[in-house]
């Protein structure tokens, strides 16, 4: 009887671990399973434990059955062992693939943190003295807001008590969804390192909204710089950081602002495409010092022709709504809306972060942009985390989160804070 109970418990645990772990390597047939893949990949240390425990219980049941128990207990026991070991093997993929990336980019990687980080309070919370929501603009009757995270003087003594560098955060959501401060813990983490963080809204409807959304980001940056004294921000040390669709908008805003400010700029304000990269409010300067993109689309024509997992997101339909047509009917807009189009020698330093198993925006987006940045001589860094899914950084203490935190901190220190 005891052997049967052990076998059933082991099989249940092993099957549950295996079901979660399989999506680490198998493309998801549904959006919900794609989200499960993010958690399974970043919390794989727990799946390793669960799989090992299931295998152990199954082995104990099989040993008991071998001593005179029933045949079904023996079969259940060994099935538990096989499933548990399979889950454990799959759970090893993320840390094994993360380790060389972490070594290359000088990032510490802690299995203990990967397991317990979500259970321990963040010490960066204490650095936030105020989080306020303000309206930064009203465009076409719609108020645009931003959440402002401000540090205490004790959070980073190296920054001193004066004007601080700022990071403007742009949320994702396929250009028609999402909301500001979706990753508040990341904002607090930045605050703890001496930055003032502005997590901003942009217009999601009506679509096509590529021009409006980009203009809103430029408006937000320009407004923050114009009000720098109020926020104790150094207007010469402002960076953009975006995720997914927000990564695309951050890149496009940063690149077109630099393009517009260049002495040899070829932007024609009378051209309909160029009008789409103008701020949506009156600001004198929307240039930034650097830009960080988490898994943002960069080449929209290529992205339309090479969609990611169509069972997870209809990438072509998303682009058609965002841009108002297909590459055949609106090719000029696709080109104008692609950050790859706007790479120039004066393009700001760029950090590109992407998961190798991204099922929403292929990692080639970052690789293609990196190639153009290399040719143009723009300072840049690309971090490709082979096992990681789209949105891997939502698990703050996961394998990928640990890698990119070290990289983002070093990049901003070098190009913005210093």
From TrEMBL:
<dbReference type="InterPro" id="IPR050300">
    <property type="entry name" value="GDXG_lipolytic_enzyme"/>
</dbReference>
<feature type="domain" description="BD-FAE-like">
    <location>
        <begin position="146"/>
        <end position="373"/>
    </location>
</feature>
<keyword id="KW-0472">Membrane</keyword>
<feature type="transmembrane region" description="Helical">
    <location>
        <begin position="72"/>
        <end position="93"/>
    </location>
</feature>
<keyword id="KW-0812">Transmembrane</keyword>
<feature type="transmembrane region" description="Helical">
    <location>
        <begin position="43"/>
        <end position="63"/>
    </location>
</feature>
<keyword id="KW-1133">Transmembrane helix</keyword>
<dbReference type="Pfam" id="PF20434">
    <property type="entry name" value="BD-FAE"/>
</dbReference>
<protein>
    <recommendedName>
        <fullName>BD-FAE-like domain-containing protein</fullName>
    </recommendedName>
</protein>
<dbReference type="InterPro" id="IPR049492">
    <property type="entry name" value="BD-FAE-like_dom"/>
</dbReference>
<dbReference type="GO" id="GO:0016787">
    <property type="term" value="F:hydrolase activity"/>
</dbReference>
<keyword id="KW-0378">Hydrolase</keyword>
<dbReference type="InterPro" id="IPR029058">
    <property type="entry name" value="AB_hydrolase_fold"/>
</dbReference>
């Amino acid at each position: 009887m005891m052997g049967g109970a052990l076998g059933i418990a082991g099989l249940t645990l092993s099957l549950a671990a295996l079901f979660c772990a399989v999506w680490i390597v198998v493309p998801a047939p549904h959006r919900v399973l794609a989200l499960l893949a993010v958690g399974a990949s970043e919390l794989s240390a727990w799946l390793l434990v669960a799989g090992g425990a299931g295998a152990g219980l199954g082995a104990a049941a099989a040993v008991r059955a071998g001593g005179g128990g029933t045949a079904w207990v023996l079969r259940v026991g060994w099935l538990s062992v096989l499933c548990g070991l399979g889950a454990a093997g799959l759970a090893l993929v993320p840390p094994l693939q993360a380790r060389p990336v972490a070594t290359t980019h000088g990032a510490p990687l802690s299995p203990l943190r990967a397991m317990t980080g979500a259970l321990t309070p963040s010490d960066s919370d204490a650095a936030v003295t105020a989080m306020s929501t303000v309206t930064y603009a009203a465009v076409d009757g719609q108020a645009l807001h931003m959440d402002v995270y401000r540090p205490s003087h004790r959070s980073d003594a190296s920054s001193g008590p004066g004007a601080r560098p700022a990071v403007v955060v742009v949320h994702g959501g396929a250009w028609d969804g999402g909301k500001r401060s979706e990753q508040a813990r990341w904002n607090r983490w930045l605050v703890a390192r001496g930055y003032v963080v502005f997590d901003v809204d942009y217009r999601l409807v009506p679509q096509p909204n590529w021009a409006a959304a980009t203009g809103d980001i430029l408006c937000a940056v320009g407004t923050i710089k114009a009000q720098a004294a109020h926020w104790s921000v150094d207007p010469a040390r402002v960076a953009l950081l975006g995720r997914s669709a927000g990564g695309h908008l951050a890149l496009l805003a940063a690149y077109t602002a630099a393009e517009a400010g260049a002495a040899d700029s070829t932007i024609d304000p009378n051209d309909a495409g160029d009008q789409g990269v103008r701020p949506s409010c009156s600001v004198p300067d929307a240039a930034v010092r650097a830009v960080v993109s988490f898994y943002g689309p960069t080449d929209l024509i290529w992205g339309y022709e090479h969609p990611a997992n169509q069972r997870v997101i209809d990438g072509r339909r998303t682009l058609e709504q965002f841009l108002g047509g297909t590459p055949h009917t609106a090719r000029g807009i696709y080109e104008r809306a692609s950050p790859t189009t706007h790479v120039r020698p004066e393009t700001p330093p760029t950090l590109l972060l992407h998961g190798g198993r991204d099922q929403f925006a292929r990692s080639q987006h970052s690789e293609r942009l990196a190639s153009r940045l290399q040719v143009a001589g723009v300072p840049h860094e690309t971090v490709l985390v082979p096992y990681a899914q789209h949105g891997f950084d939502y698990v703050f203490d996961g394998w990928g989160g640990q890698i990119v935190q070290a990289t983002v901190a070093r990049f901003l220190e070098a190009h913005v804070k210093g």
